[in-house]
Design brief:
Chain lengths: 190, 190, 190, 190, 190, 190
Amino acid sequence: MPQPDHVSIYDLPEPDALDDDTRRYFEICVEKLGMVPNVLRTFSRNQEKLRAFSQYYNTLMLGPSGLSKLEREMVAVVVSSANRCFYCLVAHGQAVRRLSGDPHLGEMLVMNYRVAQLSERHRAMLDFAWKLTTAPSEVVEEDRGALRAAGLSQDEIFDLADVVGFFNMSNRFAIASDMMPNAEYHALDR
Amino acid sequence: MPQPDHVSIYDLPEPDALDDDTRRYFEICVEKLGMVPNVLRTFSRNQEKLRAFSQYYNTLMLGPSGLSKLEREMVAVVVSSANRCFYCLVAHGQAVRRLSGDPHLGEMLVMNYRVAQLSERHRAMLDFAWKLTTAPSEVVEEDRGALRAAGLSQDEIFDLADVVGFFNMSNRFAIASDMMPNAEYHALDR
Amino acid sequence: MPQPDHVSIYDLPEPDALDDDTRRYFEICVEKLGMVPNVLRTFSRNQEKLRAFSQYYNTLMLGPSGLSKLEREMVAVVVSSANRCFYCLVAHGQAVRRLSGDPHLGEMLVMNYRVAQLSERHRAMLDFAWKLTTAPSEVVEEDRGALRAAGLSQDEIFDLADVVGFFNMSNRFAIASDMMPNAEYHALDR
Amino acid sequence: MPQPDHVSIYDLPEPDALDDDTRRYFEICVEKLGMVPNVLRTFSRNQEKLRAFSQYYNTLMLGPSGLSKLEREMVAVVVSSANRCFYCLVAHGQAVRRLSGDPHLGEMLVMNYRVAQLSERHRAMLDFAWKLTTAPSEVVEEDRGALRAAGLSQDEIFDLADVVGFFNMSNRFAIASDMMPNAEYHALDR
Amino acid sequence: MPQPDHVSIYDLPEPDALDDDTRRYFEICVEKLGMVPNVLRTFSRNQEKLRAFSQYYNTLMLGPSGLSKLEREMVAVVVSSANRCFYCLVAHGQAVRRLSGDPHLGEMLVMNYRVAQLSERHRAMLDFAWKLTTAPSEVVEEDRGALRAAGLSQDEIFDLADVVGFFNMSNRFAIASDMMPNAEYHALDR
Amino acid sequence: MPQPDHVSIYDLPEPDALDDDTRRYFEICVEKLGMVPNVLRTFSRNQEKLRAFSQYYNTLMLGPSGLSKLEREMVAVVVSSANRCFYCLVAHGQAVRRLSGDPHLGEMLVMNYRVAQLSERHRAMLDFAWKLTTAPSEVVEEDRGALRAAGLSQDEIFDLADVVGFFNMSNRFAIASDMMPNAEYHALDR
């Protein structure tokens, strides 16, 4: 049984059935990334939702923030590790390898972020991300205090909470949809 | 100590510091709902994010779907119950009371959806929402099969996964931000 | 499907088949509360047990104690929240609303007590109640020490342990019996 | 450090400070059991509560029921095993050894009831007791159905729920109070 | 149904079908212990594995170490308590009773080690054993630091990790194999 | 902070302080694998234990068995995934990639084996490995029955239980020891 063999559980529209803006968006993906990520192909079943998802994602992960792009990807991977989301671990694990230039860091965050040697700031961010993901009902003021003690500003806490939230959404959408990552991710930045 | 006394942990911009479209959006909220929900006031700290969040939310919860608006709100409450998100339980518990005209149903979904007498379709939807929320890594094909057996179409499974995902995001953003629901919700539709 | 439609899973005796003291007890309930709580109607299937249950309950919740009646009800609600007992959350959530005059406090304790702004004494009591309910095997001397540090006396710790224990009993009896709360509770003290 | 060295965390009244009925009750304990169980000595700090506790206990465990006394003790041990309550495991483990005449059965129920070879009725009772103890919020109609399929009547389900509830209470009271079992239990009925 | 009635789920070789060294080994067991422990009889199905298991076990539990034999057995019991392994709790609970001369200590470690009055060194060892058994992914440098603070050397931490690991292996092999302890253990050293 | 930078938490003997057989063993490792795995270097702190560990490992993973070497490695990875053991996931994830020739399969088993498309035999083996690892106390006859229904013989169940047990041991030893995998593993068989 060759692994994997499908995009997700849904029937998807043919490329030429897509709206013009979606087609253009997918062409840009191919240019920049060499592929259309399967999450976008899956969302193309409902292009209104694809637009909303992409706008949210791009603002969150590529927009201005006190959290660097690498930091946002590190959080994405740790959330996805807690939830064991295959799609997001493959796609964002590669992003950590690429942005950090440290493939071992990517693997550590995928497998168990606690073994990584991290700055106090990163440890605080990832501990918070883990708890907010796995035990949201138990998050209390002390947990926010630990972020502040590690130097995070109000805006950085806002953005951290947003990234943790977003991947708790996309992990679940991907898992429910049996979404498979594009095969290209695996070999990149090893 | 009167409860509650704040919107969230962030300093928020004064109304007249907001962009025109945000100000108009908030005015519409007041007209239609009698208030600006505190989640929107919180997001107004970053209006680019507010726009993305609102577009996602409106498409998801108010747009066309095989899931009725009540069904989407029922899922929102059960996800929020699993995560024990005070903000979302208050706001969306009220929505279930309003849309169903059955205040006891709202309370049951807030407290423990398993005690409610539900159709097979609703039981399947809420069981899936609970598992995808609390044990995402354990969701397997049998779980999707249970949705199909209860009559859900591909589009309905897509939308269900999306609603479950979204409230796993907003629950965590609200909890991390210590976001308090507007006091108005409590007494409505009792 | 109107919610709810039954007292519990058991066939119950007709009112005039009850012993005299039970009948008098139920008349007093109607006078004072406007109803016979369904937990008492359920226990009337075994009147020897009804007497034992009522004696325990009245001594515990209404008798003299260093814990105020409101404090005992707050603990009852937090235990019931941990166990997600619909019956007890409805009945004792109303008691907290009534005794505190603060409906938001009642809702917070039902949904997630950690969001409430509490005195150090109340925080310590409710943290202990939560842990003793959800992880009894892990309670150690440090946990008792936290109660003492918050000023609780030996008698107050005794009574706190007793209230936590009692609602862990009644929650389970109610859940096993699919016991539904009287509809009257919902609208009271909103 | 010899184990154990105390009754519980509370200062307890001297024997001659007790009310007459309590003193008589304790004398009967010594006659019949060879000791005053430490749970009763602990409750003697509040004799009103001691009376309520004893009445509940005696009705539950010694009164008429479709569940045999051994069955009620088996349930008591399995609940106490789930909660890892040292006091109740020692005291009621001995009761199972005595009533069953099978010391290995007592040990199995203390350590892991799943390894015991049990009748369908007993398996169903203990599976229900375990779930109602460890995951009360997840108990649903199917669980009650399994009891009925194993032949339990309404009265037997009522009494089973009551026993499970009671030991969830007494386990927590004992743990919170650091209550130690009387040393006599250990060697009996080996 | 008399308890227990089998060695494990496997068909086992007749004594005279065993290799000479195994036969001699079993004769020594009878001489020294009065029985061939059922774990060895079970492993005799694959004598190459029996040899490897015995060598590992004897080096670990009987060889030189900074941890006394009693300390190693205490760890064995606490690991087996966490995993609720009937075989190992019976066999090693007896070892703790024998080596400590304190039957109550044996029972406490079987049922809930947290109630025992322990030296700081033993508390630290058993807390570490419990966490490494039940939440291995969450073990971090602070946990190792607590061992060092209690005076454990590098060699003692090495041996502690090894004992915890070993019983996590043998517990799972015993449980998977439905392995029953020899009946002789029960009455010894009470 | 370059990742990783140490073998484990222990001071290790210099190569020329090792016994002759250990030195020869390590030379063979370098010849065959291109490195001395860090688990062996760590165990060289106690060469008697190194011998016992190596004999157990080699019999288990390289000896004759109804489970193929790939199947044993698949089980090793799934156990290590459940326990989130960085060392074993890196080392045995590589083994699955090499033996299967399918790098995606290796990644799936590391991240969440449930997304892989597996034969009924492999699904049954891995489901059993997961449950025996994460909830050993709940393993019952039905779980063994599922293995038999998938065609596993007594010897295969014996070996499966042994592999699951062994990696529950080595995962915990590695985690407790903060053992880092050799950097070479990462790039192999991608």
